[in-house]
Protein: Transcription elongation factor GreA/GreB C-terminal domain-containing protein
Amino acid sequence: MNPSFGRGARTQLINQLLYFDEQSSAFLDDFCPQQGKERVNLEKFIEQYTAVLERLLAQDEVQFMQSLYSKVLIGSSVKVKYDDDGLEETFTIVFPTLTAPDKNYVSFLSPMGRQLLLATSGAVLTIEIPAGSFTVTIEEVKYACSGEFTKTG
Structure:
């Protein structure tokens, strides 16, 4: 395992924690401006995500590196296998400003991104999207160091 990769990933995840701690209100205002149930759910979702990050960052280096290859985080590359036809596809979970459908960069706020975030390698999920639902198996997770937030995307 590459120690510099681990340090870079750790730094990026710490920066995510700091961002959500310091910029939570601005983030929510940008991406869910109306008060109500949706915003409350998003706040809880972000709280859950940051709690997981805090636990991961408290791990020793070996456990931390294992987590980077087993739990879907913002910045993770996720290979899924569609259960209906066996096809595989890889997505990278990113901040909304970095979404790029042509590269399979999926916002963690999108219906698919929200359901993949925090899932674990080997999990079988029924993904609900506006067009319907489908079942996938998470074949592989690896942190791709795509977890930085930018205002401009």
In short: The mean pLDDT is 90. Helices lie at 3-31, 37-57, 61-68, 111-116.
